[in-house]
Amino acid sequence: SSTRKAIALKSDLAEAHYYLGNILIDLGKLKEAELCYRKTIKFNPEFGEAHLNLGIILRNQGKFKESDNECQLAYKLNPKDLFYYLNMNLFLSPIPLNKEQIDEERTEFINQISIIKKENTLIYKGGIINPNIFLLAYHNYSNDKLLISKLGNALSNKDGIVNNSFNKEKLIKDRLKRNNIRIGIFCDYLCNSSISSYFGNIIEDIAKSDLEVIIFRTQNAREDIKTQTIDSLASEVIKVPNSIKAASNLIINKCIDILIYPEIGMSHLTYLLALSRLALIQVLLHGHPNTSGLNEIDYFISCANYETKNSEKCYSERLIKLSRIPADYDFPTYKESKYSISNLNLPKGSLLLGIAHSPFKFHPDYDFILDKILEEIPNAYLFYANSKKAYQTNQLKYRWGKYTKLILKRTIFSPRLEFEDYLKIVRNLDFILDPFYFGMGSTFYEAMACNIPVVTMPTNHIKSRFGFAAYKQMGINNAPIASSPDEYISICKKLAFNKDYREHIKSQINKNSRLHLFNDKNIHKEYIEFFRESVNAAEKNKLLPTNWNPTLKI
Hints:
This protein has helices at residues 2-9, 14-26, 30-43, 48-60, 64-77, 82-89, 99-118, 144-156, 168-178, 194-208, 225-233, 244-253, 268-273, 364-376, 390-403, 419-427, 442-449, 466-474, 485-497, 499-516, 523-538, and strands at 182-186, 212-218, 236-240, 258-261, 281-284, 299-303, 318-322, 351-354, 380-385, 411-414, 431-433, 454-455. The protein is of the alpha/beta class.
């Protein structure tokens, strides 16, 4: 209201329109924010930040050519500024048209990293850099660690990004005074999100133990009832400033023994802070299941069924395998839904297969599998829930229309639904398809809560192995787990045409998921054992051995 008053007093004040645009972004009102940035530029065409923010909004609308023009204008107004250079040049398409486009963009990504490292005239002058590493995990490449490590190394060599003031001896002296382990958790997603669904209960249980827990988040992090519950159990909650230097100094001054990042890649400031040593031990969880590629992250918490015998080569961190899935996911509770399945207008005798996944999970290779499934099961239809970002759904439709024969004709594109209505549809699905090569997370839990089989195909990387790990943990006999694309299609046909098999899987899920998948109220004890032993090792300047396992038998 104060900013709007400033505009009312002086309608051509560019700065007021710019700051109002920033506020509207925080409120999720992107269309209004776009208008504010356009007005900013109208009154001050040399306002670089406005051009950049407008470019980012246009990119999120799928207007890539116009977005690129705005980002280039921003960089021309701020030459040699690393902040603007990265936002202009490190770009990956969320919905690539084909594998060739993925190859080209990754090649350009590597080229840009080399330029950033070699170009000494590129200077970091401030601002929260977008490293744009999130989408790398969806490409089905084995060199993610190499790319991310190269980027981390290039950025670490720029003055003003890495904080080198951590003092290990000082921290250990502080520990001796308080005689307890202090855990720091940096996360912007401890709210109604998949991150808090995986780890929220674990954080609460750790906070109830004799360990001290401090929560860190950025100024713009979303908060809700779940946030309040977690915060109420923490010893302290800190909103860090939107400055790498100020935020990193604040964390260092809190003398954190173990700093946990539930994800790296979803939050820009999280990634930038992870370039520095801010705590005695730094740990990454699988909120975004990919390596950080960073030298300063010591451990990655996983489990045996998430990994294979060769998994260590995928991580820059020391891999820690807990005895089972390292999450405590509540069995979903929901209100009764009045939604009618008849709204889907399915032909009589149809089978309904779920593909309600984020649009960027659909790798171009997987399109042809979906097409083949529809060809082999003539009465099958796909259920897809539209993305929050309309342009991503539209781009996916364009790709399917251009390269496949049946997907557009046999897919029901549903608008966004209330959770209760969505679950009612899930309960009426015949089965769900787990996409190649980045599989389901929360959607798998929701399927299990509704007793709906999921067809999955694990690869050698954690990002595709959740369904596999969950089935193994539940002890599902003859589970719909494929070892090849052909077997994946074959299992789909078996579930479609063999009702006894489908009902057998559903019956096992109904019984075993309640016992062995949801509400794991003991897994936090394995975390605590890891915390204690890793601190003991760190005080001796060591990491835990590669074959470390929790000794607790729970």
